[in-house]
């Protein structure tokens, strides 16, 4: 079986490993993401060099407004390490192999359609909750990127019209915002697992309720705009069943008619979703 190098580049960690056309990965390796642009480029090149001639091509998912043809990342909200160098060009020049680079939420949606919770679904949207909020749209089985590769970027939407506020969906509803506010209240650093294990404590419950409202508005507005069969929720926090149950209740409370025709589910492929989606795009290019 042919193998490909699949790389999921996050703001905190890079996850990577070989993957076959059956979407199985015999390994998963992790490195902390370098923030300096040149160090970041050398880090990715070093990962690729380690695999040498064992790979047929390279599939990358990462944050950004990414042109799938040129590989240019024009996202103003990501770090300089993500947009200073064109990874598609750099790695094709390095290896002579085919390289695909695509937005991570777009890849996660494709991964779920191929091997996860959206299997058999033709019209759905996805939001990912993490350091920020990402989004993706699939209509009639096709990924919708938009004219400037920004389609589905619900994290950039404002929840209200106060011109003096810089808060948008991403800064208010990302998992990092929940963790930051609870940590500030407690006066010590905690993580999402701690929060979901202590939701019955009043202070934490209040912060969680305010945060959930913003996530529900973001998800519900996306579903109202696109009329999908399915709304998927991704990110590490979606493994918490309590969140999915609470989100369903709140979204359907805000938009009661959605309950009849838009199902809300957690993603199922976990950390592999983005890498599966990126590889599917690479295989499509190879088969051309």
Automatic annotation (TrEMBL):
SUPFAM superfamilies tied to this protein: Actin-like ATPase domain
Q: Which InterPro entries match?
A: ATPase_NBD, ROK
Family listed: Belongs to the ROK (NagC/XylR) family.
Q: What is this protein called?
A: ROK family protein
Q: Which organism is it from?
A: Candidatus Eisenbergiella merdigallinarum
